[in-house]
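To close the section, here is one more complete example, presented without commentary so you can practise reading it yourself. The ligand is 3-methyl-2-oxobutanoic acid.
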Amino acid sequence: MSSQAKPPGAESVTVAALRARKPGGPKITVVTAYDVTFARLADRAEIDVVLVGDSLGMVMQGQSNPLPDTLDEMIYHARAVVRGITRAHVVVDLPFMAYATVDEGVRAAGRVLKESGAAAVKVEGGIEVAPLIARLGELGIPAMGHVGLTPQSFHQLGGFRVQGRTDAQKAKILAGAKAISDAGAYAIVLEGMPVSLANEVTASVPIPTIGIGAGPGCDGQVLVMHDLLGLDVAWSPRFARRYAELGREVEAAFSRYAADVRSGAFPAEAESFK
Ligand code: KIV
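Output:
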């Protein structure tokens, strides 16, 4: 067991507690985090679930999609996140090609739990990942599903496009969500789909749905922390809401610091040792 892994305490958000939120709420709150500082702040804010998403490659490394993320990178960041958590549930994305077969997925998920101390993994896909989710369940590894706009299928989808607008896509998403739920997933992310479809999926499965760009009818919501905090000064996706303008604040703080260093105003006497 990782030195960071802690048994869930009385206050900890467990898989059972999350499942019990459906039906009837309260809604499940999820944000991404990739380091100890933001994980600690999310935990203190009583966010229920911290997701170490494979958005990592895009928001932390400047990649244009999540395909280059590696399992080692996910574990490295998950370990840091777990160190900042006292009560929230931590779930980690298995990256692209880490679960092309059930055996590979089992090995990858095992490494995530053992080496980071996180409580669960998330996998993208529908019917095709159901056998992996079932096997993980047999091994005691909770799995979250993810259907709709699945960023790891970026090339196949032709980019980050809303899914479920055609009858074929809609049927695939509904069947995928059912298969994942039947296989034992404890929750499903619904990403980038029409509100009506998200509502239909939510009504059709007994496990909580966590929406992102899927409207208000889901059992919970997830946002990438950079979008929520306004860390990118120039851009945010249409479905996100900016609850802060940290990008602008950080830039202004860096500018003020640089000006103070240049003028000699920093450090002052109080910031110096006699
Ligand atoms: O990687 C990620 O951050 C995610 C969320 C957007 C759901 O999967």
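Once you have examined the tokens, check your reading against these statements. Strands lie at 28-32, 49-52, 89-93, 120-122, 143-148, 187-191, 209-212, 220-223. Residues 32, 51, 53-55, 93, 189, 191, 212, 222, 224 surround 3-methyl-2-oxobutanoic acid (CB under 6 Å).
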